[in-house]
Design a protein that fits this description.
Structural class: mainly alpha
Order of helices and strands: HHHHHHHHHHHHHHHHHHH
Number of domains: 1
Radius of gyration: 24 Å
Number of strands: 0
Number of helices: 19
Largest sheet: none
Shape: globular
Distance between the termini: 104 Å
């Protein structure tokens, strides 16, 4: 694709995005920014949630990962569905009953200020790093397709990217996000379906031939029960899916802010169940696309790229297919990446304002000014982090950041699990030490697991171990009941 075609596609998409954002965010006050005034229709949120769970990285990576992992990712997606049911029927009623703006307020009510701030800071670090990495990878793609051909520097790319994300979220917050996420979902589904159609047409496959090609391929294998050391082993992926979605959706302000925007907890439950089942079929479409891409590469005698993430971009933006395929790829990539970054920026603004600055009790006008300043600050920090990634320009750094982000959700999961499933009170001031020590223990265990456990590799279950260590640490902090010694005084008349 030519740089001009890519630029026109992006401009057209953002024109539509800003229109939707402006209409949805009109007259949005602080409550509208934080929780959408709790007036969102559950079916709209459900449709929006399908796209909100898919980032630009997922859009590019899932089709490519078929080459090494087949359809094993669906094992994890099945775990996602179970995890969503747990969130819907345990966490959602609790959060609605407490009328929370930030879900980390629960920790303050349950344990104290140290727990509250620990949860908020762990979320802040993980979400900032995760969002920055996702945008960085998209900035790299745009640098190659647009900015480099026009001899424009990477820092300008980052500045424009972050500015665009800030612009379409500053007005309406969650209220705007729900409708822009709905637009993103529509673009994603249409993009992947049409890409499948055009690639299948080039392979001379009708619908029956398409189904047979995918089902007969070795790459379409879903379940793996034979080798426990394999990262694709069913119970590793399924259980990891359950706990990952609880931690990264149910205990993540970014995701829960949409669910908390529904009119009541029952509508929120309908939204979560519907969106989780729908997500399964959307992920299936991406995996089907992956099989077709590898089939096309083999049929054309092409060499698949060494990095699986490059497969979809390489095929979609080349001259193998009509230009519409490249346009669809750009729309899908941009819609998924920018929407994910926008929701992360809104969640970071909410969490920092409410949890770290404790500004919820301020007057409406004062809170509005503070929230806008925080929103700008979060965008600036995100831009700086992206630019630093660009300076390092090292894929291993990206992998390390993703690993670090996954470590930070373990303590949050452990804290909420202890609070919900026990009634014990703990010494709140020591919680930060437990939250820091648990990931350190996990790192030591993961680094030595092969040597200590006969070749066993810790992978997706790391989050569970992290939460387990946090839970054990909290058990050691349980307050002992004070024994009151009553002295009997004899009264001598």
């Amino acid at each position: 694709m030519s740089p001009i075609a890519v630029t026109i596609t992006i401009i057209a998409y953002f024109a539509l995005l800003f229109t939707v954002s402006y209409i949805a965010g009109r007259k949005a006050d602080n409550e509208g920014f934080f929780v959408g005034n709790r007036k969102s229709s559950w079916y709209v949120v459900a449709f929006a949630m399908i796209g909100s769970t898919i980032s630009g990285v997922t859009f590019v990576s899932v089709p490519g990962m078929v080459g090494s992992s087949c359809f094993s990712y669906l094992q994890m997606v099945l775990g996602f569905i179970v995890g969503q049911f747990i969130i819907a029927f345990i966490l959602v009623p609790l959060f609605y009953r407490m009328n929370l703006v930030s879900i980390y307020e629960y920790l303050e009510n349950r344990f104290g200020t140290s727990s509250y701030r620990t949860g908020a800071w762990f979320f802040f670090i993980s979400k900032m790093l995760g969002a920055a990495v996702r945008l960085f990878l998209v900035c790299l793609t745009l640098q190659l397709l647009v900015f480099e051909p026009f001899h424009l520097p990477f820092i300008l790319n980052v500045a424009i990217t972050v500015a665009l994300v800030w612009l379409y979220t500053f007005r309406g917050g969650v209220k705007s996000l729900i409708w822009t996420d709905s637009l993103k979902t529509f673009c994603l589904v249409v993009s992947v379906v049409l890409c499948i159609y055009y690639i299948a047409s080039d392979l001379k496959l009708n619908f029956g031939g398409l189904v047979n090609t995918i089902s007969d391929s070795e790459l379409s294998r879903i379940f793996f029960f034979d080798d426990i050391n394999d990262k694709r082993y069913f119970f590793k992926q399924f259980l990891a899916g359950v706990f990952t979605v609880i931690a990264m959706n149910g205990l993540d302000q970014d995701m829960m802010q949409r669910n908390l925007s529904c009119k009541n907890f029952r509508d929120s439950q309908k939204n979560m169940i519907t969106s989780s089942i729908s997500q399964f079929f959307v992920i299936l479409l991406f995996l089907m696309l992956g099989v077709l891409l590898y089939t096309f590469v083999a049929q054309q005698g092409l060499t698949a790229p060494s990095k699986s993430d490059e497969l979809f971009p390489m095929i979609a933006t080349s001259s193998y297919f009509p230009g519409i395929v490249g346009i669809l790829f750009i729309i899908g990539l941009v819609s998924s990446a920018y929407s994910a970054a926008g929701s992360a920026l809104t969640a970071l603004t909410t969490s920092f304002t409410v949890d770290i600055l404790h500004a919820k009790s301020k007057e409406e006008a004062t809170l509005s000014k503070l929230r806008k300043r925080v929103h700008i600050s979060m965008a600036v920090v995100m831009g700086i982090v992206i630019f630093v990634f660009g300076l390092l320009n090292n894929t291993s750094v990206i992998d390390a950041v993703y690993t670090l982000a996954s470590y930070t959700y373990g303590p949050i999961l452990g804290l909420f699990a202890f609070g919900i499933f026990t009634k014990k009170q703990i010494n709140d001031k020591y919680i930060p030490f437990v939250a820091i020590l648990s990931p350190i223990l996990c790192y030591i265990l993961q680094s030595n697991s092969e040597a200590w456990f006969n070749g066993y590799q810790i992978s997706y279950e790391l989050l569970i171990l992290n939460a387990f260590f946090t839970f054990l640490g909290l058990c050691l902090l349980i307050k002992r009941k004070e024994k009151h010694v009553v002295s009997a005084t004899r009264t001598i008349k």
